[in-house]
Design goal:
The chain has 21 helices and 23 strands. It is an alpha+beta fold.
């Protein structure tokens, strides 16, 4: 394992330098990505000589494993030991932990100390972390000029976060005069290398004409690239930009009559493109921009009777570059750029959207020089294929489902099943264990939940587990708590009765108010309680529940807006344990519906789909049982709802 490339494994730091849906810069808020996220290798490949003892390999592996498991306190002694040996991975990791307060008390002075030590040892990424501290006033007095200097040093080593932040600072006028053209240069450098927020910013620049002429097609191109990586601002922008394209009837770069896409280019070259076993000769128009160790080549290339856009970056210090090619039809290719010398031009290698190996040989100016007229003539010779309009392109329109899948895969779902059959002081129940096992099995296999069980737990077992969830779950997580056992109502308060509860002694009863306190402490974004017990409806009938807004929302709203909701098996009355069907009525009907469901399903939709069946079935058994559902506003519910996502 190459530990040079592990050094930044938990430390990607980005600013929210993105544009909102009205295309003005959103309020910049410093954010840290999930600490288990592995950096793009492009961000890590530097020429700095890292201080790494091969004998420490096992320690680094163990520390990284603990960090990925979010076991920060266990990782700390290992990292401290490695840091004493000036191990870059450990220094940057400790800086990050102290900066955000994972496993330690937040301490910007210590974060600065570790980052600065890493900087003194020559790690370019440490310049980025220090720049962020000055840029956002994290334990430092805000100093945009110092932040910019640090970012520019890191950017010279192709650290994408710094390149993107430099673009943001020029766009906002932070430490420099506001300069959208300079913002475009730096944003484009990071965007070509795949930095999502920079790609989104470029989309907004082109959409609004900031530092460039308005170009909805080019805006869409960058929004799509950013949306592919899950950038929520870009995802929200796709529908808007497609509408703008449709309303203005703008065609793509494939406009044969005007070929306006070639305006502004003065360097025309011949080139050879190989895709799989197909070899073809074509033309390209290019313009180059050099700054520091970095350069950008922007081009228009004729591929399959289309004028396609290409962008390439190259870093002289690392001797590496990246390439992206996008065509109006949706055909695209990504790869790397390999310089061949001033007399030979350059070569690009990668994979295209059809799965073919993609390679181009870009001829040098002396060998492949051409005229604009040559390129236009070559293009018009092939105009037997009808030009493609941007509004007919499937790219962008068909991205939503793909992006929703990516969003689903990025979220974590946990379930705590509490099932009590065997009571110490109260009558035993017949079905809770079978109900809980069946519910947990469906949640795990069909909906991707990580399921934990408490079987016949005492009061202390339940409260201890809830405390553990309060400390372990993160704000983007989702939690479902399923309770099957005895319930009680006393003086208007509802209670869960654990295994050690007594009929006339409420010492071990768990009141709704105590559960509500835990709901406020647990940081998970969405929590659903499913309570199959007598008097479970007191959660709603005696609390300050609020009705759910039934208006259908985008999936991202359900996953990113805090919700606290409950579905109960009945109201303020006893409910049936065993109805002769092997499960409680509530559990049986929930199991059946969750099994057949194949679409994203909100808790409200689950309730509506099962409510009448539970009511009718219980009436046939000579019992009145009406489930309830609602949001728990008093425990932090904002809405819209909890959602089940089949995998």
């Amino acid at each position: 394992m190459n530990h040079k490339r592990l050094i930044l494994c938990i430390l990607l730091i980005v600013s929210c330098n993105t544009m909102n849906t009205s295309s003005v810069f959103a309020k910049s808020v410093f954010k840290n990505l999930d600490s288990t996220k592995i950096l793009n290798k492009k961000n890590q490949e530097t020429k700095v000589q890292f201080n790494f003892d091969l004998n420490d390999k096992d320690k680094v592996n163990k520390a990284q494993s603990l960090l990925e498991k979010r076991d920060y306190k266990e990782a700390l002694p290992i990292l401290n030991s490695l840091a004493k040996k000036n191990n870059i991975f450990a220094l940057n990791s400790l800086g990050y932990l102290y900066q955000v307060g994972y496993g330690v008390n937040k301490d910007y002075k210590k974060a600065y100390f570790f980052y600065n030590r890493s900087k003194e040892l020559g790690d370019p990424s440490a310049y980025t972390y220090l720049a962020i501290m000055y840029q956002y006033g994290l334990g430092r007095t805000i100093d945009y000029k110092k932040a910019l200097l640090l970012h520019k040093y890191a950017a010279d080593y192709n650290i994408l976060t710094s390149q993107s932040n430099i673009g943001f600072m020029y766009a906002k006028g932070l430490g420099v005069y506001k300069d959208y053209k300079e913002a475009i240069r730096w944003s484009k450098l990071a965007a070509i290398n795949g930095e999502a927020s920079a790609q989104n910013n470029l989309g907004s620049f082109y959409e609004n004409g900031y530092g460039t002429s308005k170009n909805y097609v080019e805006a869409k191109r960058w929004y799509v690239l950013s949306a592919d990586k899950g950038n929520k601002f870009a995802i929200d922008s796709l529908e808007r930009i497609n509408t703008l394209i449709k309303e203005s009837s703008i065609t793509t770069d494939n406009n044969i009559s005007s070929l306006k896409s070639l305006d502004g280019f003065s360097d025309f070259r011949t080139m050879t493109i190989s895709r799989g076993k197909t070899l073809s000769k074509t033309y390209a128009a290019i313009k180059q921009d050099f700054f520091g160790s970095n350069s950008i080549t922007e081009g228009k290339v004729i591929i399959d009777n289309q004028i396609c856009s290409s962008n390439a970056s190259y870093n002289a210090k690392l001797n590496k570059g990246s390439l992206i090619v996008e065509c109006p039809s949706g055909y695209n290719a990504t790869g790397k750029v390999i310089p061949l010398g001033t007399r030979k031009g350059s070569r690009g290698e990668g994979i295209d959207s059809l799965g073919n190996n993609f390679q181009f040989n870009f001829h040098s100016k002396s060998k492949g020089k051409a005229k604009k007229e040559d390129m236009i003539a070559f293009f018009e010779e092939q105009k037997n294929i009808i030009e493609t309009a941007a509004l007919k392109s499937t790219r962008g329109w068909g991205e939503k489902k793909k992006l929703e899948k990516s969003l689903i895969n990025s979220k974590k779902f946990y379930a705590l099943i509490i099932a009590i059959n065997d009571y110490k002081f109260l009558p035993d129940l017949k079905t809770p264990l079978k109900d809980g096992r069946a519910i947990g099995d469906i949640l795990k296999k069909k909906y991707g939940f990580k399921v934990d069980y408490l079987i016949n737990p005492k009061r202390q077992d339940i409260t201890k587990k809830l405390n553990q969830l309060a400390s372990s779950l993160l704000k983007n997580d989702n939690l479902l708590i399923y309770y099957a056992g005895h319930g009680k109502e006393d003086e208007g308060e509802g209670f869960w009765l654990p295994q050690d509860a007594e009929e006339e002694d409420y010492t071990n009863w768990i009141p709704n108010s105590s559960l509500g306190f835990q709901l406020r402490k647990i940081k998970a974004m969405n929590i659903l309680i499913m309570s199959d017990s007598c008097y479970s409806g007191t959660f709603l009938t005696r609390g300050k529940s609020n009705k759910i807004n039934k208006e259908k929302r985008d999936l991202k709203d359900y996953l990113n807006i805090k919700s606290r909701v409950v579905i109960t098996s009945g109201g303020e009355y006893p409910v049936l344990d065993d109805a002769g069907i092997g499960h409680s009525i509530f559990a049986k009907i929930m199991i059946d519906y969750l099994t057949i469901n194949s679409q994203p399903l909100t808790a409200d939709e689950l309730y509506i789909a099962t409510r009448d069946d539970i009511k009718i079935f219980s009436e046939k058994m000579g019992h009145k049982q009406i489930p309830l559902y609602g949001g728990l506003k008093q425990y932090g519910h904002k809405g819209p709802d909890f959602v089940f996502l089949p995998r």
